[in-house]
Amino acid sequence: MTVLRRALVPTLAAAAAAVSLVALGEPVGAAPAPLAARAAAAPAALPATGLPSAVAGRAVVSPAALTPILNIRLTTHLVTSGLVAPVLVTSANDGSSRLFVVEQAGRIRTVENGVITGTFLDIRGLVRSGNEQGMLGLAFDPQFVTTPRFWVTYTRADGALVLARYTAPSAASATANPTGAAVLVVPHPTFANHNGGYIGFGKDGYLYLGTGDGGSGGDPRNNAQNLRSLLGKMLRIDVRCAGHAYCVPPTNPFVRSTRARHEIWMYGFRNPWRWSFDTNGAQWIGDVGQSRYEEVDVTVPSSAAGRNLGWSCREGFAVYRAARCSSRITYTPPVLVLCHADAVARCRASKSAEALIGGFVYRGAAYPGLRGTYIMGDFSTGRIWPFKNKIHGSPTILRQVSGFGIDDAHELYAVTLSGALVRIGYRVV
After folding, report:
1. What is the sign, positive or negative, of the torsion defined by CA atoms of 1, 358, 90, 417?
2. Selection from 320, 327, 373 nearest residue 344 by Cα
3. Best CA proximity match to 213, nearest among 297, 313, 296, 293
4. CB 365 within 8 A of CB 44
5. Cβ partners under 8 Å of residue 57, min gap 6
6. Residue 239: which residues within 8 A CB-CB, separation 6 or more?
7. Which of 18, 151, 166, 265 could form a disulfide with 349 if both were Cys (CB 3.0 to 4.6 A apart)?
8. pLDDT in tens, 354-389
């Protein structure tokens, strides 16, 4: 798959083949359990408005906190438009109301009170952009207020994925200093797709970087299972260690190995385009699939080190290439799988997807009924869904959704490649 499989550009976005999202515990490819059976143990829906705080003028306190997931429909509320191919939105967690939107070509735009207020950083001259390449990640120092620095990832002219550090004069500055420093370069020769590139800080203070398998289809060089390669991995590094571009945390699983890169935290990924940390430290990873299945993987810090997520031995729950499987390896299964309707029987078109956009677990205050719900999307079909307690809700259309993000208050947003920034809410049906 290429959108991440079918290239992240509007001109190449096609109405993709349908995919059915299957909750954990249901056989892949089997008909999902009837909705009535899924909801049998859930409390009855309570009346609620589900209105966004912008409508009410304050945070909505609603009896919807116990609303079953099957009665929730996500809603989208336009914040602003006019962005140019945005791929993610985030905040500096600095107590301000600013949102930072990454545009694929290599700009970071600021948005405040629904208005695009300026350009925080412009490195378009360094970035090779188009299809799946471009500026792909942004993470602010957890102490940005006192240490105004941040990290970005982008693809450069030779296709390599670059992690670079930048600074700002102060946390309140409208623009960052234009010159940065490369921290880590991940070679990515030959193919332009499957770059990954999303970055974020864990509760442990370390920076995590997801990388794709190097591109083409089927991981022809078996990078994801090769511990000598940084491709197809979740890396974990200390970018705040004094005197160094980065250090390897002593608790990384391969830190003493002579046969593995020490930066590796987990491996066996195809293209972890978008992922996030929940407030409890759990990492929710959307891994874009090949030809039959998409998947969401969830790990917790206490047991994540060294895990093998299976690609390209496995795709979802199914064996993809048996010759790359080993009985000596324990593969961590996904929490949920999305199957392609053109390749797997009995996938429901109403919940179809083909290019998974990993999202966030909602922890904001404006929508109590949505708390603890994972929100994800699909670029190809333009659908977004709620998922909670192994039950997925009905889709809402958001065309060309390319990424999700949260503000300082953990309210949820999404961007579309067509240039929109929207806030995510819900209504009860």
Report:
1. positive
2. 320
3. 313
4. no
5. none
6. 151, 165, 183, 206, 207, 245, 246
7. 18
8. 999 999 999 999 999 999 999 999 999 999 999 999
What's CA 139's distance to the chain center, in Å?
13
For residue 314 the two structure tokens come to 């496995």
**What's the one-letter identity of residue 57?**
G
pLDDT tens by residue, 21-37 = 333 222 222 222 332 23
Amino acid at 101: V
Domains recognised in the chain with CATH numbers: 10-428 (2.120.10.30)
* DSSP assignment string, 16-75: PPPEEEEETTSPTTSPPPPHHHHHTTSPPPPP-----HHHHTS----GGGG--GGGEEEE
Q: What is the pTM of this model?
A: 0.87
**Tokens 């919807």 label which residue?**
64
Q: Which amino acid is at 191?
A: F
Q: What is the mean pLDDT of the chain?
A: 87
